[in-house]
Write a structure and sequence with these properties.
Blueprint lengths: L1 E6 L6 E6 L10 E10 L7 E3 L3 E10 L5 E2 L2 E6 L6 E2 L7 E4 L5 E6 L5 E10 L6 E2 L7 E2 L5 E9 L3 E10 L7 E3 L3 E11 L1 E9 L5 E2 L6 E3 L3 E7 L5 E14 L2 E7 L3 E8 L3 E10 L7 E3 L3 E10 L5 E2 L1 E7 L5 E2 L4 E5 L4 E6 L5 E9 L7 E2 L7 E2 L5 E9 L2 E6 L7 E3 L5 E10 L9 E11 L13 E8 L6 E5 L8 E11 L3 E11 L7 E6 L5 E5 L7 E3 L9 E2 L3 E4 L3 H4 L1 E3 L11 E7 L5 E7 L4 E7 L9 E9 L12 E9 L4 E8 L2
Parallel strand pairs: 3-13, 4-14, 16-24, 25-35, 26-36, 37-47, 38-49
Antiparallel strand pairs: 1-2, 3-5, 5-10, 6-12, 7-9, 7-11, 8-10, 11-14, 15-17, 17-21, 18-20, 18-22, 19-21, 22-23, 22-24, 25-27, 27-32, 28-34, 29-31, 29-33, 30-32, 33-36, 37-39, 39-44, 40-43, 40-45, 40-46, 41-42, 41-44, 45-48, 45-49, 50-51, 51-54, 52-53, 52-55, 55-56
Length: 662
């Protein structure tokens, strides 16, 4: 309350004036200084990276009641932090307003600095005045400046190494087309956060499904990728790691690029191959009954990647075919499997032999470690094999045996055989003719138990080359079966033929006056297949199917003119028997006269031969002289009996009779 007393001049009455003044008491102004590292986020803890840019923010607040007026100024003292102003226009002292922040942009030392402090404080005369007292505004004695801890550390760093983690076969950098492989990056980082790694693939490579090219990881990262479908001589995978500097969010630190060189080869693609390997004549897939043949199975790799480990091949045989070998065989590398297979004992039309790789036991790709792909889905190969019975055609040549021979006569040709080896298939093999088994019988088929009583020698020789003798037997055993083993077997090639001739020498004193030579069975013609040793069947001997080979029977006469002179057939003259053959034996070369008379002595027919003519040669003659029942004028003689007269030049004579019956 304010009262004013006054006297007005000339007025003795005092004047009194009253008024009221209100006074409000407030708290003095009280300043609060604060300062922090405001940027970047990672530097707010006071740790900065060498050379890093960071900002200091300072702010003064008035926590009192009285306002302030006038200019305020703050200074910054970088101390021994090694930091410098980041911008050239930065100043040590900056004006401020209450509640408005000011900033300094700094750059950390280029070298690490242990913990040190920078200082923010009021500049000299830099404190605003209290509006009431007009004196410097109050601040707490300990708040005239703020210290900020700064530690400068080396910048963040990241290193990495990368490799093919698997499969094991791919770690050398050679992989197969379309295979999967795992790439592993080993990471070592310091001073970074949010580290991640990126795999950069060359063209045609791809990531496995759901695999991200960028993988997080402070210590490792891993990717699964897929190789391209085509081979690549050289490809480069690139891996780079990066992370944010823990002190400077604006700085992304990168590693050096790790590189993995890769060669992509065609993956293993195998084809099963199977066929008959041996013997040669079976390689056309046509075999003889009971024949043993070798089936070979193996794999052809159409890829470049090799196989590793073992795998199995298994043979599947059709009905009738057998093997004593294990059906499934374990193979390694480029090995081959072989089975000895026996053909059935009867003919069979084409049937498939299959060789396969059973599921789950195939070869493994050396790069991927996975089972190789197969050329066909069946994982197998098959071929048709046909079994037939080998047949050799044997033909009896025109009968060679004479009707009449003499005791002791040598090298009498009994018959010939032609052996024809037909080519029943493309690789039909040769046959070997190695011997004969013969028997001697009389004209009625009675077997002679001791052949030496009739013959003294048997020869088998080449029909077209008499010097090529296959067998020459001179010692007869007391056994009805005569075995002739060829001294050099006759090999007859496919589609080839050979012929042999069987000759005998008659005993000097035979105990029978007739005989013939018999081959008793088809097995007596000893023929085998050259490569297999199988015995072929014999065909061509008899149209009825029964085996039968024998010579014509021969009549044995004494080795003199008297016993040997005669004629056959007798009687003769019919259409079936139009001629008769005159037989005789000469003890030496001589002139021969033969005359034929009627019973009343009329000369009908005559012939004379000199000692140089075939008919005058020493030995037995059977077929040299033939009478056709005509007289010397060529006219047919009448039916009847005629006298045949023979005279040798050395004086011997003989007669016989011939009957003509038309």
């Amino acid at each position: 309350l304010v009262t004013i007393h006054a006297n007005e001049v000339g007025n003795p009455v005092p004047l009194i004036y009253k008024d009221t003044v209100r006074v409000r008491s407030v708290l003095r102004a009280e300043l609060k200084l604060s300062a922090i590292i405001s940027y970047p986020e990672g530097a707010k803890d006071g740790q900065v990276t060498t050379g890093q840019r960071y900002e200091i923010k300072a702010e003064v607040k008035n926590n009192g009641g009285a306002g302030v007026y006038g200019d305020g100024f703050l200074f910054i003292n970088l101390g021994s932090t090694g930091s410098n102003f980041a911008d050239t226009n930065e100043t040590v002292i900056k004006p401020f307003k209450i509640d408005s922040a000011i900033t300094w942009s700094l750059r950390a030392s280029e070298e690490p600095v242990s913990e040190s402090f920078l200082q923010i404080g009021y500049a000299e005369n830099g404190v605003p005045k209290d509006e009431n007292t007009n004196a410097r505004a109050y601040y707490h004695p300990n708040n005239d400046r703020v210290n900020i801890s700064i530690t400068t550390v080396p910048g963040g760093n990241v290193d990495l190494t990368a490799k093919i983690q698997g499969p094991a076969g791919a770690v050398d950098g050679v992989i197969s087309t379309e295979q999967r492989l795992t790439i592993l990056a080993q990471i070592h980082s310091t001073g970074l956060r949010d580290v991640e790694s990126e795999l950069i693939l060359p063209g045609d490579f791809s990531f496995a499904p759901n695999v991200n090219p960028v993988q997080p990881g402070e210590s490792s990262a891993q990717w699964e990728i897929v190789a391209p479908a085509d081979s690549v001589s050289s490809a480069e995978l690139k891996i780079v790691s990066r992370g944010i500097d823990i002190n400077n969010d604006t700085v992304l630190i990168y590693s050096d690029t790790a590189r993995i060189n890769i060669t992509v080869v065609k993956k293993g693609l195998v084809e099963v191959v199977a066929d008959i390997k041996s013997p040669l004549e079976a390689t056309d897939r046509v075999v003889s009954v009971n024949q043993n043949f070798v089936v070979e199975g193996y794999l052809i790799n159409h890829g470049q990647a090799q196989s590793q480990g073992n795998y199995q091949l298994e043979i599947i045989l059709p009905s009738g075919y057998t093997t004593e070998d294990s059906l499934a065989k374990t193979i390694s590398g480029n090995g081959h499997a072989e089975w000895t297979v026996k053909a059935p004992d009867h003919e069979l039309s084409a049937a498939n032999i299959e060789v396969r790789v059973p599921p789950g036991v195939g070869p493994v790709d050396e790069n991927s470690g996975k089972e190789m792909d197969f050329w066909n889905a069946n994982r197998s190969a098959s071929f048709a094999v046909t079994t037939y019975e080998k047949t050799v055609e044997v033909t009896v040549l025109t009968n060679q045996a004479p009707n009449t021979i003499v005791a002791g006569q040598s090298d009498v040709s009994m018959f010939g055989l032609r052996i024809y080896n037909s080519a029943q298939d493309a690789m039909s093999n040769a046959v070997i003719f190695s011997g004969l088994e013969l028997m001697v019988s009389d004209r009625f088929g009675e077997i002679v138990n001791n052949p030496s009583q009739v013959i003294s020698r048997i020869i088998v020789r080449d029909y077209s080359n008499e010097d090529n003798v296959f067998a020459d037997l001179t010692t007869m055993v007391s056994n009805s079966l005569i075995k002739l083993d060829f001294s050099h077997p006759d090999t007859i090639q496919a589609n080839g033929q050979d012929s042999v001739e069987v000759l005998v020498s008659v005993a000097e004193s035979p105990e029978t006056d007739n005989f013939k030579i018999v081959i008793p069975a088809d097995t007596s013609i000893r023929i085998i297949e050259a490569m297999t040793g199988n015995i072929p069947s014999i065909s061509g001997i008899s149209g009825s199917g029964a085996f039968f080979v024998e010579s014509d029977f021969v009549v044995i006469r004494g080795n003199n003119l008297k016993d040997s002179f005669g004629n056959y057939p007798n009687p003769f003259g019919s259409k079936e028997r139009p001629t008769t053959t005159i037989t005789y034996y000469l003890k030496q070369d001589t002139k021969v006269d033969i005359k034929i008379y009627t019973l009343i002595g009329e000369l009908v027919w005559s012939r004379s031969f000199s000692a140089s003519d075939p008919q005058g040669k020493k030995g037995m003659h059977d077929g040299d002289v033939v009478w056709d029942a005509k007289n010397d004028r060529g006219k047919k003689v009448l039916n009847g009996v005629y006298v045949v007269y023979f005279k040798a030049g050395y004086g011997e004579t003989a007669t016989t009779k011939a009957a003509v019956v038309k």
